[in-house]
# Entry
Amino acid sequence: MKKETKEKKYKIGEVAEILGVHEDTLRNWEREGFVVPERIGKRQDRRYTAEMIGEIRRKGLVSDLAKKGQKTKKGLSEFTKDELIKELQLLNKQKKYGLVWENHIEEVVERCKTEAPILVNKKEKQITDRNKTKPTNILIEGDNYHALQVLNYTHKGKIDVIYIDPPYNTGAKDWKYNNDYVDDNDTYRHSKWLSMMHKRLSAAKKLLTKDGVLICAIDKYEQATLSLLIDGVFPSHEITCVTVIHNPAGTQGNNFSYTNEYLLFVFPQNGVYINKSKREDALVSAFRDWGTISLRSQAKTCFYPIIVKDDKIVEFGDVCSDDFHPGSSNIKQNDGTVLVFPIDKKGVERKWVFSRGSVEEVKEQLHCKNIGGEISIFRTKGETNYKTVWDDKKYYANIYGSKLLNQIIDSNFPFPKSLHAVIDSIRAVIHSKNATILDFFAGSGTSGHAVLELNKEDGGNRKFILCTNNEFGIEDEKKIMEKYKINRKEFEQEVNNETKKWHEWRDEYGIASTATFPRIKNIIKGYTKPNGEKVKGLGGNLEYFKTEFVDVENIDKVSDKKKLEFTYEAGQMIALKEDTFKEVTKNKFYQIFTDEKDKFVGIYFRENLDKLSEMEKNILDKKDVKLYLFSYGVNDFKKDYSDYKNVVVKDIPEPILKIYKSLNN
Ligand SMILES: C[S@@+](CC[C@H](N)C(=O)[O-])C[C@H]1O[C@@H](n2cnc3c(N)ncnc32)[C@H](O)[C@@H]1O
# Structure
């Protein structure tokens, strides 16, 4: 499209009317670089209007204006056949119900069209526990869009719980889109946020196990939109919105003062995915029903004997036949057992609270009391369903978020979550003690800390994967400008050009460098509080990765040369996928990793097979071997190793590129 000259030759109001949009919207398009052709303003060529609308769609600036634009045509009869087919295809793709937003081009997403993300292991940040039996946790520094691409290869269907706390989009410059803060003057504030979240959630969904659960923290600014967004991305899941009182003093403002935020729990429909929580005030109640619906005749399967010996429940008898009437609540047997029936003091036959079919489920909660020689049955409920309002001091973000963080590291990280809010979120979800928990908006790393605390509490082996960018906040920007005596324009130039200085600033001030990593390191290894008190480390292993890129020119059609170049760099990703972080060797032909136990991974990245037997010699005799062999497409090397029961053969790079391609289309 032609570039617009500075002098506007059209009337903005007229063009807005033709396109059926508000003038402000048009001005915003212009700011985003969209050019309004002069001819539209003069209404000389209505066909041009249709082309323009097409361009708007292609650019992804506005998604639902097509129909409005069509108003400028006299009728459908003016469309060519091809145009009509295109329109119909578009209409079919359009959502019929739910949330609508304007899709926005995001630089980090665009980058993936020509460059493929890889991981580079920063060994200088590795933490190893003396106790090698503990699992290895992962910290990935980089934009989470890129980290999620990589994880779709390494961890597809392997994540049990995703906990995220994205920027809340408060309008107070709490996050950046394409390197610019999004504030409340930005007309596209919500659309940008939704575009960003939609891309991340869609990629993250594929990582969850079949029973996996997503937990997302959010507050008033985007709670409603996020719920609808998640509803669209997870159509067969249930969403429960939990209210957390995190700020009892409340927010400032003219109308309501908010004391709460939310946790959205997203889990598959029809099943049990949420644990029971422990009751501090265990509830004791009689197991024999009373009140209006408590008679034997009202629930025949609830009338059976509970068999007691030495004041302990040993068994449950069968449901009594209608013509059997024990006559008393306690019937002593010759073998010393007592049959206890739900009969009250007046001799009325009542019923137990649970039927014979389901009483075994609560067996652990039942116990007897011998009152004046008569045995009665009671139920103690030590557990209960989690409630949808979490109101406890331990969830206060100021005390158990900010103040706690300042005890662990010297940081000005804004608004960390209460450690206990995150612990309880993860605890609420049913998962094994070996679960993998992912947080791709890790911030100060509260979720990593929570996972290590949970392991300490129950001896579990859960592991975490944290992803965070290494951006700096607005306060740090001011510090940098002051320290280097530069103005905002100069500062922004360094940022936009991703200069050497920018990299250095990130290493010095960025979130990953100043909050996420130091916190996790201190929690694992131990630290000293500002008052001198020493805190013992929780132990654990950590591998630190950074996202980097290999130029592949076009992700939809990667040339053979680029496939070779990419494969040479893909080793660390494979090491993450296989949980084998120790590099044994890397040369121009192959790379070998091990988990330092039984597992060895060999990656052969050349078409020339001259050194393949050398690599094989190094690993084929090991107990558990994975071979990743370069191939331009899909290979049939598997049969070459069919005699080796200890060897699994895989292709590279095609499976990785296929995933990247599908995520970016
Ligand atoms: C609200 S904070 C999370 C706070 C965290 N729950 C805690 O307790 O410390 C959101 C974090 O996500 C990070 N972030 C935002 N956009 C990101 C992106 N595209 N990729 C990676 N991290 C991102 C920001 O740096 C910020 O630290």
Q: What stands out?
A: Residues 552-663 form one domain.
